[in-house]
Design goal:
- This protein is of the alpha+beta class.
- The protein has one domain: Nuclear Transport Factor 2, Chain: A (Roll).
- Helix content is about 30%, strand content about 45%.
- The chain is built from 3 helices and 6 strands, in the order H-H-E-E-H-E-E-E-E.
- The protein has a 6-stranded mixed beta sheet.
- Strand 1 and strand 2 form a beta hairpin.
- Helix 1 packs antiparallel against helix 2.
- The radius of gyration is 15 Å and the shape is globular.
- About 5% of the residues have low confidence.
Length: about 140
């Protein structure tokens, strides 16, 4: 397999893993999140607050953070050996607000499996939130 073909295979795998990440968050599946997030997972919210793996999973499982939908757009994945970085736009409909964000999700390959090692998001200046408030719940990752 050529280097380009292998890289494209990894890109497709990361896109599947990002969809899986969304699915387990929406399902509040703590056991699946524990397997999917790296032990050193670091989550930086758009507000600037930071959670480690245990705190972030607890917030999701207990309902302190709840989400109705995630809509991803303009997703790009860059691959660097056993590390991949996904960036893009995401519109998140949470219980309290509609968040229009840009994000970076770092993935690492450990023991043959890709794991989410870090997520950081920031407010997106596009101003799409108010225009998309009637969008039906979607979770599909789009490139």
């Amino acid at each position: 397999m050529s280097a380009d073909a292998n890289k494209e295979k990894v890109v497709e795998e990361i896109l599947r893993m990002q969809q899986k990440r969304t699915d387990v968050i929406m399902a509040r599946d703590g056991a699946a999140m524990d397997k999917l997030f790296d032990e050193d997972y670091h989550h930086v919210h758009s507000s600037g607050s930071v959670n480690d793996k245990a705190t972030y999973i607890d917030r999701l499982v207990t309902g302190k953070s709840t989400y109705k939908s995630f809509v991803y757009n303009n997703v790009k994945v860059r691959v660097y050996g056993d590390c991949a970085i996904a960036t893009g736009d995401v519109l998140i409909d949470s219980t309290n607000s509609l968040l229009d964000l840009r994000y970076t999700n770092v993935w690492v390959k450990r023991d043959g499996s890709w794991r989410s090692a870090s997520w950081q998001s920031a407010s997106n200046s596009r101003g799409v939130s108010s225009k998309m408030s009637a969008t039906p719940a979607l979770t599909k990752v789009k490139r």
